[in-house]
Amino acid sequence: MLKVDYLNVYYGESHVLHDVDMEISQGQIVCLLGRNGVGKTTLLKGIMGVLPARRGKVSFDNQEITPLLPNRRAKLGIGYVPQGREIFPYLSVHENLLVGLESRKDSLRTVPEEIFELFPVLKSMLGRKGGDLSGGQQQQLAIGRALAMGPKLLMLDEPTEGIQPSIILEIENVIQRIKERGNIAVLMVEQYLDFAWRIADYYYVMAKGSVVSHGSTKETDIEYVKEHITV
Ligand SMILES: Nc1ncnc2c1ncn2[C@@H]1O[C@H](COP(=O)(O)OP(=O)(O)OP(=O)(O)O)[C@@H](O)[C@H]1O
Ligand SMILES: [Mg+2]
Fold first, then answer.
1. Which ligand has an atom closest to residue 38 CA?
2. For atom 30 of ligand 1, which residue has the closest CA?
3. What is the total count of domains within the chain?
4. Smallest Cα–Cα separation from 205: which of 177, 179, 180, 224?
5. 98: nearest Cα among 126, 70, 117, 121
6. Ligand nearest, relative to CA of residue 46
7. CA 39 to ligand 1: nearest atom
8. Would you say the pTM of this structure is higher than 0.70?
């Protein structure tokens, strides 16, 4: 459903992504690994269209989307939770979730009940300002907002970064449930390898702006990845 071919992305004259290839199938859970600064966030931004491709292409559901702006890609079904979450701190939890509905293809204007089934804490905090939530709750809100748009692909950039263990478990549980349903693929950048290995079907490792390794998590020893590919 997602196909990235020879993607090259620059910041000005600085060449950051070099000929990146990636493929994700429907419902697949994929983790993207690599040290700080190798280009993981840049790749997600390139897929979302926040950064333009200098060369190469991005296709989604067999349609080339390389020329499309981020809002058009969102409408096609790509949800994105940026690193650092970026919820609206002065909007209420409910208003934050309503913003997610703007990107839906249908005209649904109420938050789907299943978002509250996945994140019960959001239901009890609907009137609170986003900025008053804990870091973990803000992450849950950001994921809930992205799911409210009804994506086919959900991209999460370091969902466990700086979050307390109990909420990491809740987020893992939500990704498990998404996986069981099989209709939403997930691409997540993750430094926490044990977490990634428990839920991902497939992994990619990047180094210096390129993909250096990829494969099935079931068929790859986590210790090998820890020692040799370094995250
Ligand atoms: N706005 C920018 N302008 C110029 N260079 C940038 C910009 N953002 C990132 N870079 C550079 O691009 C490279 C890739 O950065 P990126 O944020 O994609 O890495 P990352 O793998 O997500 O790292 P981290 O694990 O720290 O989040 C780095 O060398 C970084 O310094
Ligand atoms: Mg990053």
1. 1
2. 37
3. 1
4. 224
5. 126
6. 1
7. 18
8. yes
